[in-house]
Amino acid sequence: MSCAAPCSNALPFIAVAVPSACAAAFSILESVTAHPKLNAARAAVENLMRVLSIEWARYGIALNAIAAGQFGIDDVARAIVAKLIHRHPHVFGAVKVSGADDVLANWARLKATEKAQKGKHGALEGIPRSAPALLRATRAGEKAAAVGFDFPDAASARRKVDEELRELDQVVAQGDRAEMARELGDALFSLVNLGRKLNLDPESALRDATDKFARRFARIESALAATGHTVAEATPEEQDRLWSAAKIEQELAERIGDPAATAPPDPTTASVAPGK
Fold this sequence. Notes:
By secondary structure, this protein is mostly helical. The protein is built from eleven helices and no strands. It has three domains: 4-71; 133-199, MazG-like (Helix Hairpins), CATH 1.10.287; 203-269, no CATH class.
């Protein structure tokens, strides 16, 4: 079996396909948020096509290795079966569990053992440093908690937020920008941990907050555009007044159940001041 021609470009193809798949995943998230019934299916199909493209490239690499005699398809099957059995001792072994928490705890211990066998001993190894910072922080907190390093409760995590904010205030007063950046990072990390202890997803919370800000800001832009002005031309007092009005308008819309109150802002409908 020869696959040199179709498989020779597999690695470069992965370099292209992976970013494409990531972009498609964000497209799904945006479509589901904005139009859950209309666009979710289409976006999911597009994402599936990109994932399949990555898998096809990986398949090509595997075929090259098989053709070179590095391993056979039976080796692949045995490895998959062995991992399934090893990772599910409550199904294939004698381990007793009382619920999902026990299953997850066993999973974490088994993965830690596997890492140690590969020379990786840190609980946080395996979290990509290139991952988005908020996601990486969330996963780091989860993995540390899985091995017993965690706040006892949400109140403790909340006190840590206060501590980090006080330290941030101190370095801001000193004017040391390098320390300010470090303390800001610590404060953000503590907020991620607080969200985790409250069983809230920081990514979703921040996304919703950003959408809310964008909706209110769009109202300010529209109000100023109606008078022939822009945000940059408005005084701070006028901006504050319009922001308060936009906040009240949005909160009222939320109370009466207006879907527009929580819909992501549409940049294509932004108002532009006449003549600007």
